[in-house]
Every structure is written in structure tokens, then in C-alpha cells.
Specification:
alpha/beta; TIM Barrel; 8-stranded parallel beta barrel; 13 helices; 9 strands; globular; binds (3S,4R)-3-hydroxy-2-oxopiperidin-4-yl beta-D-xylopyranoside
Length: 358
């Protein structure tokens, strides 16, 4: 099948999926319109179940303004068959998103947790640069002008590794050097000047996260000072009901980003409750929802917030153990109190946005 045939086939199949998903959507409450009224993206991580589960797809089309592939756009998945990436997963989500009026967030170009199985443990700077920038360029260029945001580099700080600047000890740091993050962002910008380029990390909202917050701020301040094309920082927001989070520290962190002209995004929100999940020892849904409500009440006050993404939409697919219930919908696609908490937060942001622009 020639390229144009494949593209038209993908577009036609995506359109068919979209029409099927919209049927009956009108009467159900939806997060998507609330997000638009708030001037934000609301999105969720999705996977191949998007194609085969009509009830999940319908919820995505109702609730989301954007989607992010959970694992199929990662280097290890795209390059699972060899050094040249299989770009079909890129094209399939592009076709569906464009047929559905959804924005795409690409996740993630460079992450120590998703290096290809063939990536060399030992490589000189020249070879490592060729591999990393080649991958970034191949993938981003294949979707040029069609992806709203890219998570360019993911989880590059680890103060516990003992590096003076808090960078995580990874093969790319060892092989390329401390400028690998800047180089990755520059390669992405050259491949798609229109994309918003994001640095993504975890533990930035945690009570224990001060060193992580400082290391990320140091990294992005250096990138900005060097004129690196970076547009925002993603806070993964994998919350554990038992651990809590430091909303004030997060607001200060976001204000530092705003001073640099950077977006603040919640990129992988879910709430892992303590214990084995609902029932004896586990937090019931209303306690999980209370964590969503309190966390998002602070988040929607952040001026440079541009999007909220949950890491999945239904417990059916969560990467957290199936016994827990960390997401807005349960396994049967019934909305839970967490869904209401997200809706309330978006309404609050929309009301504030309306007040400011009225
Ligand atoms: C996880 C996915 O949810 C899993 O399906 C996959 O097997 C491993 O990666 N931080 C990240 C995400 O940035 O890419 C990770 O996603 C979860 C932690």
C-alpha cells in the first residue's frame, strides 16, 4: 500500500472510529467542554484499547481535548524491531486525533526508562549523538506540524545519584555529556518548529521533592539562559493518597517557571490509594476523589497552567495495580467521584478565566 493510500486508509478508519464514538455522546456530561471553557487542555494517556473498546473511545471523545500515547511512541517501542523506528503508531494516532479534533502530546522522545534493547551500553559521543538526534529527528519530523506538544526529555534529574547539578546518571549523560538535554530539545525544534517542547518529571509535588524541584529549576534555567527552545515543564503528578503533596511548594515552583515564560502542565495524574485498593485497608473512591479535589484546587490557581492530563481514563487500563482505583472511570467505564472532582476543578478555572476576561 503506497504512502498516500496508507494515509487515506488511516484517515478513513480514524473517521469511522470517531463517528462511532460520538454516537450518543450528546446527553452525557463531559470534561472536554469544561476544559475548553477554562482555556486548558484536558487529556488522558491512551493505548491500543482506544481502537477496540468503543465505550472507552466514546469517553475519550467526550472528555478529552487531547490524548497522549502511553507507551507506543516511546523509543523502545518504536525501535523494537530495529534501529529504524516503526512510525506506523505515530501515523495511526495522528489520523485519529485529526479526525476527532483532538490535540496530541507526544510522549516521550528521550527517557532512560525506554531505551531500545539494542542501544549500546558503551558508545562514544559521536555515535551517541547520532543515535539520539537521529531518533528525535525521525520521530518529530514524521509528525511535523501535527503534534501540539512533545515531552522531549523525561526524568533527567535524580539528586540521589550525587551529580553536582542533580542530573540522573544515564547512558546518554555518560556518552554525550551534560548538554544532551539541550541537544535533544534543539533537534526536536529543528524537526518541528511549531511544536511546544516540554521537559517532564515526577516527584515535583512531593513533600520530599525539594531537591528534585531545585534540580529541575536549575536544569531549565540553564536551558533558557542558553536560548534552548523549551516551552514548558510537565509535572507527572502520580499522587499516592498516603504520601500527600506540598501544594505551596508546587505553586512556588510554577511561579519560577512563569518567570521564565514557561508553561506548567500536569502530565500523568493518578491517585494510588494506600493498601490493596478499595475494601479493607484500601481507600474508597471518595477518599481518592478528595485527593484529586484538593490537589487540583491548587493546580487550577496556577496562572501558567495550560493542561491537565490523567495517566489513563479508566481503571481498566491503569499502570497501577488493577486492585486500586486511581482514575476518573472504573473498569466498567462508570464515572467515579474523581471524575466529579476534575469537573469541579475545570469549572472553577473556567469561572476564574471568565472573570478575568469579562
Ligand atoms: C509507564 C506506562 O504507563 C507503562 O504502560 C509502561 O510499561 C512503562 O511506562 N513515568 C512516565 C511514563 O513518564 O512514561 C510511565 O509510563 C510512568 C512513569
Amino acid at each position: 500500500m503506497g504512502e498516500i493510500d496508507r494515509r487515506s486508509f488511516l484517515a478513513a478508519s480514524a473517521a469511522a472510529l470517531t463517528l462511532a464514538g460520538h454516537a450518543g455522546a450528546a446527553e452525557l456530561p463531559a470534561l472536554g467542554p469544561l476544559a475548553k471553557a477554562a482555556g486548558l487542555d484536558f487529556g488522558a494517556a491512551v493505548g491500543p484499547w482506544l481502537w477496540r473498546e468503543a465505550d472507552f473511545r466514546a469517553a475519550v471523545l467526550r472528555d478529552c481535548t487531547a490524548i497522549v500515547p502511553e507507551y507506543e511512541w516511546k523509543w523502545d517501542y518504536l525501535a523494537r524491531a530495529g534501529r529504524r523506528p516503526d512510525l506506523q503508531p505515530i501515523q495511526r494516532y495522528l489520523a485519529f486525533a485529526e479526525a476527532s479534533g483532538l490535540a496530541l502530546r507526544g510522549h516521550t522522545l528521550v527517557w532512560h526508562g525506554a531505551m531500545p534493547p539494542w542501544y549500546p551500553a558503551a558508545a562514544g559521543r559521536r555515535e551517541a549523538l547520532r543515535l539520539m538526534t537521529g531518533h528525535v529527528t525521525d520521530v518529530v519530523a514524521s509528525a511535523r506540524g501535527r503534534v501540539r506538544r512533545w515531552d522531549v526529555v523525561n526524568e533527567a534529574v535524580a539528586p540521589e545519584d550525587g551529580e553536582p547539578d542533580g542530573l540522573r546518571r544515564t547512558p546518554l549523560l555518560a556518552q554525550i555529556g551534560r548538554d544532551y538535554v539541550e541537544i535533544a530539545f534543539r533537534a526536536a525544534a529543528e524537526a518541528d518548529p511549531a511544536a511546544r517542547l516540554i521537559y517532564n518529571d515526577y516527584g515535583l509535588d512531593a513533600p520530599y521533592g525539594a531537591a528534585r524541584r531545585e534540580a529541575v529549576l536549575r536544569l531549565v534555567e540553564q536551558l533558557v539562559a542558553r536560548g534552548t527552545p523549551i516551552h514548558g515543564v510537565g509535572v507527572q503528578s502520580h499522587l499516592a493518597a498516603a504520601d500527600g503533596y506540598d501544594g505551596e511548594a508546587l505553586a512556588v515552583f510554577a511561579a519560577r517557571l512563569q518567570e521564565m515564560g514557561l508553561e506548567f502542565l500536569v502530565t500523568e495524574l493518578d491517585v494510588a490509594n494506600p493498601g490493596p485498593g478499595p475494601g479493607p485497608g484500601g481507600a474508597p473512591d471518595h477518599e481518592v476523589a478528595a485527593v484529586y479535589a484538593h490537589y487540583l484546587a491548587g493546580v487550577v490557581e496556577i496562572p501558567n497552567l495550560t493542561g491537565i492530563f490523567t495517566w489513563g481514563l479508566s481503571d481498566r487500563h491503569s499502570w497501577i495495580t488493577a486492585s486500586q482505583r486511581p482514575l476518573p472511570y472504573d473498569g466498567a467505564m462508570r464515572p467515579k467521584p474523581a471524575w466529579d472532582a476534575i469537573a469541579d476543578a475545570l469549572r472553577r478555572r473556567a469561572a476564574e478565566t471568565h472573570r478575568l476576561t469579562a
